[in-house]
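Please go through this protein, sequence plus structure tokens, and consider how the sequence yields the tokens. Keep your notes short.
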Amino acid sequence: MKIFHIPCLEDNYAYLIIDEDTKEAAVVDPVEPQKVLDLANLHGVHLKFLLTTHHHWDHAGGNEKMKELVPGIQVCGGSLDNVKACTHLVHNGDTFTLGSHLTILALHTPCHTKGHISYYVTGKEGDHPAVFTGDTLFIAGCGKFFEGTAEQMYQSLCVTLGSLPKPTQVYCGHEYTIKNLQFALSIEPDNVKLHEKLKWAQKQRQEGLPTIPSTIEEELETNPYMRVDLPELMAKVGCESPVETIQKLRKQKDNWRG
């Protein structure tokens, strides 16, 4: 399995996922279709799937053009999400195969939107599993609760995504890492892992490199929204339950200027 970042718009990422043996590929959220096609052509791959995480324009806005440019591409989107140009509605637990080695599992991760889907991809032995989380899970952060509740975000982050194998690589929809880490440090100023990751992320960005992927293990160590089960974090935020904590954290982040 090979994964390529495709920077789009101001701070979005689309991703190209390739099965190296068969040269079949999937693309995640190709908001700028020509960039995707150029990269696909460069690597000599056939685009089989378009995986949409959610209906927002900066993720699904390239779907119609992509469908026009790649006849026969299967456009996947959440069954509750009204995704443009969708040909295949996906539900939680649906799986499909890419090439001869890759399996894609759809995970319903609602809150940012009602039908938000994260895609968990596994390959052959030696491949790290990967999850494409759109705007549900960011590196050290999470998406705004536009269409859902704190309970849903808790389930999506801490139960669904948090239970994936720790080495799973996390590919999210935006380059928000530095600000998210700075906010996280305002909550947990003594978290050594956070200080280390912020220093690393700043260096990456200075060199024009992405801060993505992270791993589920790193997120459990540094992402405050995935640490809300910890009594010490609840105490810092002044809450008595994980769901109440995730709600308060998101509200604080919405008003935080850094």
Remarks:
- The mean pLDDT is 97.
- The radius of gyration is 18 Å.
- The longest strand covers residues 12-19.
- Residues 229 and 242 are 5 Å apart (CA to CA).
